[in-house]
Amino acid sequence: MLFDYPRISRLVCATLVLSCCAAQAPAAPKVYVLDSAQAQLTTIDEDTRLVDGTITTGKEPHHLMLTPDHSALVVANSASNSLMLIDPATGVVRRRIEGIEDPYQLAFSPDGDWFVTAGLRLNRVDIYHYDGQSMTLAKRLPLENKPSHLCFSSDSHTVFVSLQESGELAAIDVLSQVVLWRIPVGDTPAGVWCVPGDRYVMVGMTGEDDVAVVDWHTHAVIKRIHSGRGAHNFRALDDGRHVAVSNRVSNTITILDFTTLEKTGEIGGLMAGPDDMELSADHRFMWVTFRFASHVGIIDLVSDKLVATIAVGRSPHGIFISDGAPLTDQ
């Protein structure tokens, strides 16, 4: 038998090249969903929109965010008093940090020097020094009643906190770790969003049907923008102009123009309890957790229609896309 050695060599080389390419192919983007009533994180393949796994967390994981260097995704387990750090590309758990008490909500300062948690259960805000690896407690600051959501001023000096039961917005000086002021804003304030330019803070009024716009320099509510019942949380649309507001009772999402402080659109036809939102890298799709329906939804922002739903665990809350659009407007 005669062998065509040049042809065989070419086939072997081609096979090796294909194998190497397959081995080095980047992993599909992942969507992470915190099932807060089930102590787990559901992972979804963003391309196929299929659930591809679950990860056990601590009790009541509500919120999550990237570290300042984007190397780890931090999951806050509020009832277990712990954090879990995950590789955002692969979903591999890297380490757990114990002793972070009641981290219902979490935030890193824009300069990366501070890490702050809101203790909804303990009526406290904890401020930590952050060196890129470790969190060192600087101050436990009592703050009644029911500190909920957080956002930082762009200079990292001030963190704003909604107080759900007292109906207030508070401002904390991070450097001195003291409460600067607190003002009434309405019934059950939840999500807070620092408007680019450091002039206003928007507050979702979950006990009402509006967003309160606070001039934090004069400590006054200067406008209320009608959204929908149960206005709750925010997600910038990364276009320099618009931000989305989830309305957990009316089951809608409102689009606001933060440059004019006006409502510009509304998305309906959603499942019960739209809560946290994420944006795909191409800005085409918004992913949203349906807190009261145990599903995640995908909204086409061209048609403003819900185009897909995916069953996840109980009470889905925080959501993150590994290659999602950046939070450049925040």
Describe the protein's architecture and organization.
- The protein is mainly β and 330 residues long.
- The protein contains 1 helix and 28 strands.
- It has one helix at residues 5-24, and strands at residues 30-35, 40-45, 50-56, 61-66, 73-77, 82-86, 93-98, 105-108, 114-119, 124-130, 135-142, 147-152, 158-163, 168-173, 178-184, 189-194, 200-205, 210-215, 220-226, 231-236, 242-247, 252-257, 262-267, 274-279, 285-290, 295-300, 305-311, 316-321.
- It has a 4-stranded antiparallel sheet, with no helix packed on it. The protein has a 4-stranded antiparallel sheet with strand order 4-5-6-7, with no helix packed on it.
- Strand 9 (114-119) and strand 10 form a beta hairpin.
- The longest helix has 20 residues, at 5-24.
- The model is unreliable at 8-23 (pLDDT under 50).
SSE diagram, text form:
Blueprint: H1 5-24, E1 30-35, E2 40-45, E3 50-56, E4 61-66, E5 73-77, E6 82-86, E7 93-98, E8 105-108, E9 114-119, E10 124-130, E11 135-142, E12 147-152, E13 158-163, E14 168-173, E15 178-184, E16 189-194, E17 200-205, E18 210-215, E19 220-226, E20 231-236, E21 242-247, E22 252-257, E23 262-267, E24 274-279, E25 285-290, E26 295-300, E27 305-311, E28 316-321
Antiparallel strand pairs: 1-2, 1-28, 2-3, 4-5, 5-6, 6-7, 8-9, 9-10, 10-11, 12-13, 13-14, 14-15, 16-17, 17-18, 18-19, 20-21, 21-22, 22-23, 24-25, 25-26, 26-27
